[in-house]
Amino acid sequence: MVRAAVLPAVGAPLEITEIDLPDPGPGQVRVRLAAAGVCHSDLSLSNGTMRVPVPAVLGHEGSGTVVAVGEGVTAVAPGDSVVLNWAPSCGRCHACGLGEVWLCADALAGSADVYARTAAGVDLHPGLNVAAFAEETVVAASCVLPLPDGVPLADAALLGCAVLTGYGAVHHSARVRAGETVAVFGAGGVGLATLQAARIAGASTIVAVDVSPEKEDLARAAGATDFVVASADTAREIRALTGKQGVDVAVECVGRAVAIRTAWESTRRGGRTTVVGIGGKDQQVTFNALELFHWGRTLAGCVYGNSDPARDLPVLAAHVQAGRLDLASLVTERIALEGIPAAFDNMLAGKGGRALVVF
Asked: Which in 97, 180, 252, 345 has the greatest CB count within 10 A?
């Protein structure tokens, strides 16, 4: 039996309880978690903005140590340090055939499986495949990536979602070039990672935008050269900081219609707007045909940073090892499983960066 945070039903409070976790079967790996990040997607799953089979153990951003492997697993062995990959590609679907593994049609198929049971015998699903809000988990071998040496195991959890997403938004989706100007909307965990990625890319001006003035120090530490408190004048303020042109690239990490629209309006003529934030169906964004023609901007969605985790994890680890990427600075709170509901509340209130569950 291991302790876990169980979501009994959509909209219900999390329950910290013991669950019965089986030994790994063929092609599976059992991992003892070192840490798990509390991501806004977990909140979206818990409140129904995104769908997940329930009851479930949420948590998809994690790192830990392999404790056992099932038959046929050769890529990792007991004792190996790993990062969890919540969206493994199948290698067979149309998107995978195009090399767009972040759009794999079957990436989340494992979320419908029963992977464990409560002490009372109730079947549990692994939220987003990996069920990281637990002391240990059992996942498909494709859901673990070996962690390169030189990266702290607990902090490495952030590589599994926030950093892959933020780095990928900058380097794969928006393809920021040295000397370009960038605005990042939202200075939570993903936003802070995006700011660091923009700095690594060599952006000249990096504007952080957030509703909370208290985020300024965090944003500047991550690489922001300027900070703007979100308001009706945000686009005008950003244009004033960029010679009245607007930024070359705006990255929206909030998932709200007003933020997406403002990011678009803050982008220069011919620039790129990348949407990372996951919003609800009620968040409608409108454009008129003339402005689409006149501004010549590109508006693109961005899934998981358009990243290939197997390819990108060693690259991110090299940035960590060289001191260019600071994982610890993204974490503003280290908590136990019992602290996850409060971390959700802080996200709703726009407080802090990433909360990290440390086991």
From this structure: 252
pLDDT at 49: 87
Name residue 92's amino acid. R
What one-character-per-residue DSSP string does 62-74 give?
Answer: EEEEEEEE-TT--
Beta strand ranges found along the chain (DSSP E): 2-7, 15-20, 28-38, 56-57, 61-69, 81-84, 116-118, 123-126, 136-140, 144-146, 181-185, 205-210, 226-229, 247-252, 267-275, 298-301, 331-335, 354-358
Distance in angstroms (rounded) separating the CA atoms of residues 220 and 250: 17
Can you tell me the distance from the alpha carbon of 344 to that of 355, in angstroms, rounded to the nearest whole number? 9
Q: List Cβ neighbours of 95 (8 Å cut-off, separation of 6 or more).
A: 101, 103, 104, 105
Buried b (16+ CB within 10 A) or exposed e, 40-76: bbbbbbbeebbebebbbbbbbbbbbbbebbbeebeeb
According to the model, what pLDDT value does residue 280 have?
86
Q: How far apart are CA 76 and CA 308, in angstroms?
A: 19
| 3-class DSSP assignment, residue 309 | helix
Q: Cα 313 to chain center, whole Å? A: 14
348 dihedral zone (left: phi>0; alpha: psi -120 to 50; beta): alpha
Q: Phi first, then psi: give them for residue 229, nearest 5 degrees.
A: -80, 125
- The tally of CA atoms less than 13 A away on the side-chain side of residue 190 is 31
CA atoms within a 13 Å half-sphere pointing along the CA-CB vector of 46: 24
Torsion sign, CA atoms 225, 223, 161, 305: positive
Q: For residue 304, what are the contacts with CB-CB under 8 A and spacing of at least 6? A: 87, 102, 161, 164, 165, 168
Query: How does pLDDT run across 89-123, given as a tens digit for each residue?
Result: 999 999 999 999 999 999 999 999 999 999 999 99
